[in-house]
Amino acid sequence: MDDRLLYILVVFAMAIGWLLRGDQRLKRSEILGPNYYDAVNHLLNEDSDRAVAAFIEELKVNPDTLETHLALGGLMRRQGEFEKAVIVHENILANSRLEREVILNVQLELARDYLLAGLLDRAEQLSVKLSGEKGQVLEQSRKIMLEVYETEKEWEQAIAVGQQLAHGDNTEKYEKAISHYYCEIACASMEIKNFDTARYAISEAVGHYANNARATLVHGKIDLAEGKYQEAISILTRIRDQETVYVPESLKSLSLAYSKAGLPMDGLCQYLESCLEIIPSISIALALATLKRDQMGDEAMAKYIADYLKRNPTIRGLTQLIDLHIDNTRGIAKQNLTILRSFAEALVADKPAYQCQACGFQLKRMAWRCPSCKDWSTVKPIFGLEGE
Ligand SMILES: [Zn+2]
């Protein structure tokens, strides 16, 4: 930012201070019109370091200028300039003449800045301190604490705070989250082969959210890891009636459990067919097609996929169908099929396969917690031509 622009900013800031001192009757909204914010925004884009420093130096914090400072802090945060939002909010707090209620609210803002800036220790310290308050300050500080513990993967602490937040209209939301914290504990315990803890955590997960398909999935994986194949099958097949969209997540474990148990695959075929009656999922259809190939050969598989694609066209299904034909084709036809396959693959290569039902955020890989809105169990497969 050149000095001329910086000068404009400083003059603006000083003029506001002067106007506010000169005429207390004048409403702040009349002084700080949209042009002012545009100007500030522009200046901050040019050189936000100097602009912020000049701003907080020139416009002293007092009850009349507080909103302007808060607006600047909010602007910095929206622009992803979390460390500058910290500077603005810390500067407000350095002014001790503000009312206690105002100070508490600014401290909440600051705790959020710390969280977003990745200063988790400071965010935790401040939000724990604010959780000694009452009402909205208590509620908001707990939400910040919860996010800190989720980010740090401190699941035990997240469970404790989640339980404090699970009341009134929020009960279902936080009970669901707590169920996932127990799933996280179960997965971590499984990795170190501590199956007793994993099983205990899964029973807690089910207790907090009975229809958590992830808890069922992890339960099935524990059974599988402990060689209890029949149990794994009866557990994993519950997912169809809980949340059928998550059946594709269980296919690998389910197929392994069937083969380890030495059971005829007919049972698995029937189960997959019953799932397809509920949702048109190409992952399930392809798993079923593979089973048909093992029993009846390539031709039966190709016919099954072709019939399925007529009803539910997807590019993933098409590439699979091409693969089945490519080996039995020669010469120019084989070359053409290879080109067609690479086109089809390119069409879906960079496409997201999952989407959060709460905020619309799209992902390439499955996640139980949305990376954008941080909600649990909201990410589901995308259906249609380019997806499932
Ligand atoms: Zn989301």
Report on this structure.
The two termini are 49 Å apart. The model is unreliable at 18-31 (pLDDT under 50). Helix 10 (171-191) runs antiparallel to helix 11, helix 12 packs antiparallel against helix 13 and helix 13 runs antiparallel to helix 15 (247-261). 72% of the residues lie in helices and 2% in strands. The protein has helices spanning 3-22, 28-31, 34-58, 66-78, 82-93, 100-116, 120-130, 135-151, 155-165, 171-191, 195-208, 213-225, 229-236, 239-242, 247-261, 266-278, 282-296, 298-311, 315-326, 331-349; strands at residues 354-356, 362-363, 379-381. The longest helix is centred in the first third of the chain and has 25 residues, at 34-58. It is built from 20 helices and 3 strands. With 388 residues, the chain is mostly helical. Zinc ion (ZN) binds next to loops.
